[in-house]
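Exercise: predict the fold of this chain.
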Amino acid sequence: MTPNSAPSPAAPVAPADSAAAGASSFDAARSWPWLLLALGAHTGWGIYPVLGRYLQTVSGLPSLSILAIGYAPLAIIFLVYTLPRHGRAIARSRALWTFALIVVVRSITNILAARFTPAIYVQLITLMTPFIVAFLSTLVLRENLPRNTWLALILSALGCLLMLSSEIDAEGVKFALTRSDWTGIGLALTSAIFLALYMIAAGRTTRIELSGWTVLMFQSIVIMTISLAISLLAGEAWGRWLEIGRRDWAVMGLYTLVVVGWANGMQIAALRKLGAPVVSSLMGWRLVSTLAVGLLLLGEGLHSIWQGAGMAIVLATLTWYLTQRPARPGM
């Protein structure tokens, strides 16, 4: 998210011709290994808010220190391997800096969102990103609103309300959201807006002659540096890292290796082979993985048949909507 993503922060800069070729030559019978790879990437981004919430609320680790340490391995690779290959010229690209700074805000708000509200809510808001992209593109860039957007948005909003509800009876829909939940949802929405801005910027920027991995490395060192600086200025309690146990370190390892590293790599590879439309159509799987791992690791899940129905509505609507329209890079 990056956190992801977050969708992967590097995905939008994968060569456009590769993505187009992947989309045009898609053959389900031959492409199933790449479909599994794409599902693996979405699984990684699905468990991201779960791991982030665990590290903050159970392990008690400072939020920005998690980002700094989580991105440190890729930042080191950038300094040792990528920077010597490309030289300082890599840092002169305005597009790279634009992408990196947007991803920094996206990453910080995303990790903080998981601190305040359940991971399933964070992921739910993240899945609304395609609609934010559509409306921002229409308002700012004067692009035509993709067909079926209003219908998909209404259905998704209904599903979201059901998932956020605590009870439905003769008096109507009831919610038990606390001030902390609203703070987390607000941060998740901010994160989704910046993810949408990233996708729009990627779609409007001329091709960058760098690999997706190179861009990921560059963004990683920017995220690590800014997160570390803010963490130190804010006086976060880094001493907590000396007190955590093996389980906490194991979760941190999953966060660093599976999400920051592996999920990014799988998404970049899947985008090159399948194209953005196919990969994005599987985006709903993130909500499933968030729910499953959230139940196992945090004991957080859905508590009523209405919440389950809401989740089904969101998954069906999002999958249908994304298969009806061309996807933006990185979706």
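Check your answer against the key: Confidence is low (pLDDT under 50) at residues 5-26.
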